[in-house]
Specification:
This protein is α/β, with parallel strands linked by helices and 389 residues long. Helix content is 30%, strand content 29%. It binds flavin-adenine dinucleotide (FAD). Flavin-adenine dinucleotide (FAD) is lined by residues 7-12, 32-35, 41-42, 44-45, 73-74, 98-100, 118, 148, 151, 230, 232, 264-266, 278-281, 283, 384-386.
Length: 389
């Protein structure tokens, strides 16, 4: 069986590594990535703050596993059995789409021209510009009150004490958290000197955000207003939602073709757990689950539906503070939260743990396992959280 996996991020890589080990000799595994490097997207706000190199060679991460790595951009997904990588056709028996997401730069006019985003190239460019802006006491406006906006604003404010940072959002940052969680966010952002503003953005101009009722000037703007799937996914003709994510059944198979799976940010289950948010905390187990399904299929065994328990959100507020918002099983926030240095330490451990989990997959010590808990299946170890801003 020829399995082609599109995307060398958290979902694609975890799928490739698990499948190559579990179905050795039964399947050929080809991993296609536009970039030769695995990008730790969950650290891109750290990169924007000028702190860390956040990528590593994919070839080293799959070395010795039997995975064939192909570097090239997917230009067409043909659901009849082949994908186009540049000018080349790549046939498959089973396809796993793991192409991730990108910041939605078409949400309002002017983002492409006037704002940075927490995407790899843009983060590095922002990191290069901010020191000079901070040195003259300039203003950075971060737009988006979701988790990436909050992490970005706090990281950049802490890294550049001279910078005037404003976090602009349509609602209160951290909506959906408990009162204790929101109170800690307000206090932490205040301590870092981040000003909170609310308003609905109409457009971005050179040096100013246009709101319904006023303009907010900036020297630099970071747009953190939500994610969409790559355009090539929408062009496939397979069923997608308004964000361009592939609609998938409980087995993570496309509603339009049962031989095509979607994992990570690019997949949107239409049945429970359909409230799954984009995040590496979902991407890693989704990738592993599909690998297990394909290994079962190669042995002639039936597949099992994906199930997943979201333990909560773990966000950084600079390097010395954080917030862990535990979630109840019904999806509502628990009253209590963990904060401060312990939360910052745990978040760092979680970020480190995602890469360690991939290394462990390669070494044959899988960290992601499912265990039966009555009717449900629970997955341990994923507490980090992301939500479209
Ligand atoms: C600043 C920031 C902080 C975050 N923090 C957290 C957090 O704390 N916890 C959490 O759970 N999530 C967090 N997230 C979200 C998380 O990063 C994503 O949900 C996760 O990366 C999704 O994994 P993925 O494998 O689906 O996609 P990705 O990691 O984006 O990988 C996609 C892959 O597809 C490749 N690709 C894309 N298009 C093409 C193409 N046309 N051809 C070939 N290859 C292509 C890319 O090169 C990449 O290898 C954060 C995101 C950001 C930006």
């Amino acid at each position: 069986m020829r399995v082609v996996i599109l995307g060398g991020g958290y979902a694609g890589l975890s799928c490739a590594l698990r499948l190559a080990r579990r179905a050795k000799g039964r399947v050929s595994v080809t991993l296609v990535s536009a970039s030769p490097r695995f990008v730790e997207r969950i650290r891109l706000h750290e990169e924007a703050a000028g702190k860390k190199r956040v990528s590593r060679e994919l070839s080293a991460m799959v070395a010795g596993t039997g995975v064939t790595l192909k570097i090239g951009s997917i230009t067409d997904i043909d659901s009849r059995g082949e994908v186009h990588v540049g000018g080349e056709r790549l046939p498959y028996d089973r396809l796993v789409v793991a192409l991730g997401s990108r910041v939605d730069v078409d949400a309002v006019p002017g983002i492409r021209e006037h704002a940075s985003t927490l995407d790899p190239t843009s983060s590095a460019e922002l990191a290069a510009r901010l020191p000079a802006i901070a040195a003259r006491g300039g203003r950075l406006v971060v737009i988006g009150g979701g988790l990436t906006g909050i992490e970005g604003a706090s990281e950049l404010a802490e890294a550049h004490p001279g910078l005037q940072v404003t976090l602009l959002s349509s609602g209160e940052p951290g909506e959906g958290f408990s009162e204790a969680g929101r109170a800690h966010l307000r206090a932490a952002l205040g301590r870092l000197g981040v000003t909170l503003e609310q308003g609905r953005v109409r457009s971005l101009q050179a040096g100013a955000v246009e709101l319904q009722d006023r303009t907010v000037p900036f020297d630099a703007c970071l747009w953190a207003g939500g994610f969409v799937a790559p355009e090539v996914v929408r062009r496939s003709g397979l069923p997608v939602n308004t964000r361009g994510q592939l609609l998938v059944d409980p087995f993570l198979r496309s509603l339009g073709n049962v031989y095509i799976y979607a994992v990570g940010d690019v997949g949107a289950p239409v049945e429970p757990p359909s409230a799954m948010l984009m995040g590496c905390k979902t991407a890693l187990p989704m990738g592993v689950h599909v690998a297990e399904s394909l290994a079962r299929a190669a042995r002639g065994q039936p597949e099992e539906p994906f199930d997943y328990l979201d333990a909560g959100f773990c966000i950084s507020l600079g390097r010395r503070d954080g917030l862990i918002q535990v979630m109840r099983q019904d999806g509502a926030p628990a009253k209590w939260v963990f904060t401060g240095r312990f939360a910052a330490w745990l978040k760092e451990a979680v970020c480190w743990g995602t890469v360690a989990a991939l290394g462990a997959e390669r070494a044959g010590w899988p960290l992601y396992r499912w265990r039966k808990t009555g009717r449900a299946l629970a997955v341990g170890g994923s507490l980090q959280g992301a939500r479209a801003a």
